[in-house]
Amino acid sequence: MNKKTVLITGASRGIGKAIKLYFENQGVKIITPTRQDLDLLSNDSIDAFIKNLNEPVDILINNAGINNISFVNEVSDDNINTTIQINLVAPLRLIRGIIPNMMAKKFGRIVNISSIWGIITKSGRVTYSMSKSGLNGMTRTLAVELAPYNILVNAVAPGYVDTELTRKNNSSEQIELIKKTIPLQRLADPSEIAEVVAFLVSDKNSYITGQVIIVDGGFTCL
Asked: How much is the pTM?
């Protein structure tokens, strides 16, 4: 792994930061663009970023995402467009731009960070669930298309994770209630999601592709 280069989007906090720290501890070369380097809302920025990459990417982790909670009768056009762009269109454009080198080398690992809300859902998640469901479908299709080139494509779908975003969208009282609905009776630590991602992109994984791995403490079993 220390000979591989990993590109991680949204690595400044939460799950993305935990993934970055994991690879840093393994001595892996990491590219973690800032919003100034890579604006996922801008296709021109995405294309420019790919064009200006001065080294090949062996592993791509599409982690950046947004979750703007809104009921369908109140959802704005901006919410729809922004959520689909960042959560779905941007990952596809990054993959499209980065895979030529992977295909030439006959090696690549791609992990898309999805969500349980792309599999189940709840009120107020219409745009988020749409985008993550689409991401899951994209993962399966690309796994089939890229398998002949030894490029494995998977998604990880976390449940409730102890991140800034979770605490922003839920009060302390709500979080305590949420814990009671999870069989393991707690939120996931971001490092636990990072461990799953790390396995999927490691040399230990040579045959898992096209899967959406749920990491939710048993929440979706109920």
From this structure: 0.97
Structure tokens at 140: 């399966």
Spatial distance between the Cα atoms of 29 and 7, rounded to a whole number of angstroms: 9
Per-residue pLDDT tens for 173-191?
999 999 999 999 999 999 9
pLDDT tens digits, residue range 46-66? 999 999 999 999 999 999 999
Number of domains in the chain: 1
Active site residues: 128
Angle among Cα 180, 190, 201 to the nearest 5 degrees reads 125
Angle between helices 43-52 and 90-105 (to 10 degrees): 20
3-state secondary structure of 112: strand
**Structural domain containing residue 104:** 5-161+190-216
What are the CA-CA distances from residue 54 to residues 25, 48, 88, 91, 116 (Å)? 23, 12, 25, 20, 35
Residue 68: inside a domain? yes
